[in-house]
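Hi all, long-time lurker, first post. I run a small reading group and we've been trying to get comfortable going from sequence to structure in the token notation. Rather than ask abstract questions, I figured I'd post a concrete chain and ask someone more experienced to write out its structure so we can walk through it together at our next meeting. Sequence below, copied exactly:
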Amino acid sequence: MSENQSTLEMNNHKGLGKVEIAPEVIEVIAGIAAHEVEGVATMRGNFASGVVERLGKKNHGKGVRVDLAEEGIKIDVYCTMKFGVSIPKVAGEVQDNIRQALINMTALEPEEVNVHIVGIQFENQKPEVEYEQEM
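-- Answer (accepted) --
Happy to help. Here is the structure in token form:
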């Protein structure tokens, strides 16, 4: 793999041709796998992904960066945890879930899965009940 490579090629043992996987596909798989773990509140995105989500389109690759290097696939995940969870335990589960999802879906094993905790989400307070005044 070269650093300028935009897709990941896999050898097909049946001789039917080649299979190419775009890094965006790996981002989506990793994003969904990370969000499935209990204790992960949200994934960090940028301003553009936030605007797109408000328009109704879900961005499953949000908060995930994939680097295709000579050494292998390196994945960085940026997430916010729920208040009260064990951060090391949940981060380990995120790493395991991403690794297993990639192996199951693409037969690729990542070299690194780095989990970056960028915040803690506290439980939302219950909204106060508003009473309408009779006139």
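A couple of things your group might point at:
The helical segments are 23-35, 47-54, 87-106.
The domain at 23-121 is CATH 3.30.70.1350 (Alpha-Beta Plaits).
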